[in-house]
Amino acid sequence: MTDTLDAFHRGAFHLLQPEKGGHRAGMDAMLLASLVADEREIRVADLGAGAGAAGFAVAARLKGAQVVLVERSALMADYARRNLALAENAALSGRLSVIEADVTLRGKARLDAGLPDDHFHHVIMNPPFNDSRDRRTPDALKAEAHAMTEDLFEQWLRTAGAIMVPGGQLSLIARPQSVADIIAACGKRFGGLELTAIHPRPGEDAIRLLVTAIKGSKSRLVWRAPLFMHGEEGHAFAPPVDALNNGRDAYGRKGR
């Protein structure tokens, strides 16, 4: 398998990734990382981390963040470990670690894997987003990274709620079609949901949804103003989105 070495956040960190197979990181991971806006000394879990893009992006922007990359695929977990060992990432690698485990583990199995109860201040996730009934890609690794199951959000958010400290923040990026499943899975675990639709351009339908929520919060759900990736014309990113994509800014919550 051929690898590529890609720079993110304008060279703040680099990632080895499979050139063609698997789930290559891009803007989704960078937007997900931007949802963590916390200057404290924090512990962050990146569930379904792949090669580690979102977790690395959090660590690169927030010097007080200790990040655990959780990935089920042995191949992608190995990429994450190789990325920790890159000379280009030496300044960050001491604050990141990798756990090769299934996000949906429960009870003692989850604890034994290294994901204790009430431990992380932030849990971030970019879950698989394709309906399993859709046409599947012939690439097995990519299929695993992109195909969701019927109760995926319930399982992933159950784990997030278990490993997060009370008052901790959940952050995720998903397709807009998943909004009902996300709200249902938050249930009584998470409140204060803040949702932001991401549109390619004004007048075009949303293609992604950013969600943050707080463990144990009783606050009501809020729809925030949409984000537009581009202007009316051209393919350049709009300045606010470019700043998020390159780690110059964070997309913090409006409230707690």
From TrEMBL:
<dbReference type="Pfam" id="PF05175">
    <property type="entry name" value="MTS"/>
</dbReference>
<keyword id="KW-0949">S-adenosyl-L-methionine</keyword>
<feature type="domain" description="Methyltransferase small">
    <location>
        <begin position="30"/>
        <end position="177"/>
    </location>
</feature>
<dbReference type="GO" id="GO:0008168">
    <property type="term" value="F:methyltransferase activity"/>
</dbReference>
<dbReference type="InterPro" id="IPR050210">
    <property type="entry name" value="tRNA_Adenine-N(6)_MTase"/>
</dbReference>
<keyword id="KW-0808">Transferase</keyword>
<keyword id="KW-0489">Methyltransferase</keyword>
<dbReference type="InterPro" id="IPR002052">
    <property type="entry name" value="DNA_methylase_N6_adenine_CS"/>
</dbReference>
<protein>
    <submittedName>
        <fullName>tRNA1(Val) (Adenine(37)-N6)-methyltransferase</fullName>
        <ecNumber>2.1.1.223</ecNumber>
    </submittedName>
</protein>
<dbReference type="GO" id="GO:0032259">
    <property type="term" value="P:methylation"/>
</dbReference>
<dbReference type="InterPro" id="IPR029063">
    <property type="entry name" value="SAM-dependent_MTases_sf"/>
</dbReference>
<dbReference type="InterPro" id="IPR007848">
    <property type="entry name" value="Small_mtfrase_dom"/>
</dbReference>
